[in-house]
Amino acid sequence: MFVNQIAVFLENRAGRINEFAQCLAKANINMIAMSIADTTDYGILRVITDDNEKAMKVLKEGGFNIASTYLVGFEVDDKPGAMQRVIDILDKKQINIGYLYSFVRPIEKKAIILIKVDDNEYVANILRENGITLIERNIL
Amino acid sequence: MEYYNKEMECMSLSDKKELQSKRLIDTVQKVYDNVKTYREKMDKIGLKPSDIKGIDDIHKLPFTTKQDLRDNYPFGMFAADKRDIIRVHASSGTTGKLTVVGYTQYDIDMWAECCARALVSAGATHDSVVHIAYGYGLFTGGLGMHYGAERLGAIAVPVSSGNTARQLQLMKDFEADVLCCTPSYAIYIAEEMKKYGIKPEDMSLKYGIFGAEPWSKEMRDEIEDKLKLKAFDIYGLSEITGPGVAIECKYQCGSHIQDDFFYPEIVDEHTLEPLGYGKRGELVFTTLTKEGIPLIRYRTRDITALNNSPCKCGRTGIRIDRIAGRSDDMLIIRGVNVFPSQIESVLLKEKEIAPHYHITLDRVNNLDTMRIDIELAEGVAFDEVKKVESLTKRIANEINSAIGLNAEIRLVSSGSIERSMGKAKRVTDNRKF
Prior knowledge:
Chain A has helices at 16-26, 52-61, 82-92, 120-129; strands spanning 3-11, 31-38, 42-49, 65-77, 99-105, 110-116, 133-134. Chain A is an alpha+beta fold. Chain B folds into two domains: 6-328, Rossmann fold (3-Layer(aba) Sandwich), CATH 3.40.50.12780; 333-429, ANL, C-terminal domain (GMP Synthetase, Chain A, domain 3), CATH 3.30.300.30. Chain B is of the alpha/beta class. The interface between A and B is medium-sized, with 22 and 17 residues.
């Protein structure tokens, strides 16, 4: 019921992201959403693919340091203020968001927001109570 | 004041050889009678104390290494009765076990004499105010120079290391003319002075006695320029006594060894064959009068050469060149002895990282910096930066408590640190000495 994400530790050096991307490309894995947290020394690349299980396997074999995490995903209309309305609800409940990223489904005029929180169940319940559409399957 | 003890420091070479011979014979008898390790080493090669008839026979004697001291931790190599030992000092060993040395009253007096000679060689007199910013404690730097200054009749200011602002205040107020510390701390002091708007002219500094870490000619120039003093290189190691084993004179053409107390040899670091004057190799010392822990042919692992040409200063103590490096993997970082194995033992305790690491040393603004690249354990990763940061911080703290130094920790992917088939190349030293 939560969205599975792969976090990849990448030290800063030329060509490192390419090595990562090659690894997935060779295995014919498609990336659906991605975000990178960058520092001076390293980056943490977070990715959701069309086949996380296979992606985990090939990345591990490729020598990458990876972690599997679950995020809360929800859908909003692709229009001004839509995401803010949801964040405001969480804010009032003093929910701390570790990080957030999103992507848009232009045909459906919807945006998918993914958030990292401490307690997925608790946050999912709040969103549900407020009538927000959760991404209930791993397939986005 | 040109010499502290002219009779000994300028002794003729023939008299010195006679003295060294007599002292070596006594020392060999003493260690054979009182130290099991030496008795065993000598018996094994069929060498009797009576076979040593003079200093020229020194090559017959077996070597001593840091491993011997470690195997006999803590007091097993002491030749004196424990009741006659009045102080111990210690330096770091490769496995976290310290190398312990013990001093009798005679040893402390002899060491004070060495440091008094060193102070005078650098220009100090009994009217001097000696600001001692070496650490006081198990490390020999602080107390060694302290007893030397007192012996000389100068004023010893036992300020130890740290709190630079207070150090500047005291140096200025007490009108210190002699500064003793590591060369990198001297540079740091100069930079802090600038920050506080203190000019070298506001101080009374004339001479600096710097040691405990390798330093370059360029660093000397910079210290002399910034602090407006004359900078002298002092050499020593706790196993032999501490600072004052050798000191530069005003002609600065190598450091004079106090060779009435410590007999130097240079040997090939691989074959252990003695090398002639001017040849670079490993420095080996035999203590000639020590009681607490006399050492025979102790391998310092420092690489240098001996220079026996006469010196204009009149001292006859043989000279060593600037230390050119080490024959083991010990690193000297900001004056602290560090073995890579100490770092390794910290890393082995952490589950989230692998014991694959690489140390990079640099000198930035004349201060040593240490970066340690460490591999994450296989399969370990984090989705948040703060988790990486807390792991990094924890490792940094543990390394600091193990070696007493701050290191920049950089995590890298597993398998990304180069593996080698033979001895792993754990260290890249970009510092220039």
